[in-house]
Automatic annotation (TrEMBL):
It comes from Sphingomonas quercus. InterPro entries: KR_dom (IPR057326), Sc_DH/Rdtase_CS (IPR020904), SDR_fam (IPR002347). This is SDR family oxidoreductase. Signal peptide: none annotated. Pfam families: adh_short. Residues 7-187 form the Ketoreductase domain.
Length: 245
């Protein structure tokens, strides 16, 4: 499979369940992949495992909620990838109810889940334009939580709602440059963001209450491999028995 042959790809949140699955598929499709996350040991272990099967992969350990984080990340992009064709932004953190969070806590959620997306998208667009290929792509992982509006997720939804509005508006702004932008809106995913132990997540996944990360990765790969001129605007994917309250 060579659908992404030679494409320079940045994946944020690369050590998470979805990031891992996306990296695996994009490497198999011929992409050159730079994985970014805040957890250095997990990131390096993953890169070594995926790299052992062939393909070009490197890492960048960056805290994207830090205002200086995106600049450090894109310095690594320039050094190792030498430009960019595709950004997959799936970094993020969970959140509790606003009344249970201090100011530092809710600001961290907004910075991680929204501000970092804007900053990374800006860096990606600048490099895609500089490359002059007119075939670049931005894929932002949002959440269906903005449609469900479950109790206790107000801060998280504020961030993900911002991502959705940002994506839907910026997509139109990028059309003259030939850059496509896709918003992926997954339901509940069987990842470490869920407040359940691994064995419980596995059971819920088998009961169709949580999405396998691999299925979200397949949706991302589908969007990334459409022909130029075909734009997957928004793709919503959820488990059959998605919680709605």
């Amino acid at each position: 499979m060579t659908m992404l042959d030679g494409k320079r790809i940045l994946i944020t949140g690369g050590a998470g369940g979805v990031g891992r699955a996306v990296a695996e598929r994009m490497l198999a499709a011929g992409g050159r992949v730079l994985l970014s996350d805040r957890e250095d040991a997990a990131l390096r272990e993953l890169a070594e495992r995926l790299g052992s099967s062939g393909g070009e992969i490197a890492t960048a350990t960056v805290e994207l909620s830090d205002p200086a984080g995106p600049a450090r990340l894109f310095q690594r992009v320039d050094e190792w990838l030498g430009g960019l064709d595709i950004l997959v932004a799936c970094a993020g953190v969970g959140s509790g109810p606003l009344s249970e969070m201090d100011d530092a806590g809710w600001r961290h959620v907004i910075d991680s889940n929204l501000v970092s997306y804007v900053a990374c998208t800006k860096g990606a667009v600048e490099r895609i334009k500089a490359g002059g290929t007119r075939e670049g792509m931005i894929i932002l992982v949002g959440s269906i939580s903005v449609h469900i509006k479950a109790v206790g997720e107000s801060v998280y939804n504020a961030a993900k709602g911002g991502v959705a509005s940002f994506a839907e508006t910026l997509r139109k702004e990028l059309i003259p440059d030939g850059i496509r932008l896709t918003l992926i809106e997954p339901g509940a995913i069987a990842s470490s963001m869920q407040p359940f132990p691994p064995e419980e997540r596995q059971r819920m996944m088998e009961d169709n209450k949580l999405l396998p990360p691999a299925q979200v990765a397949e949706a991302i790969l589908f969007a990334a491999t459409r022909p130029a001129g075909v734009d997957v605007v928004t793709l919503r994917i959820e488990p059959l028995d998605q919680k709605i309250y």
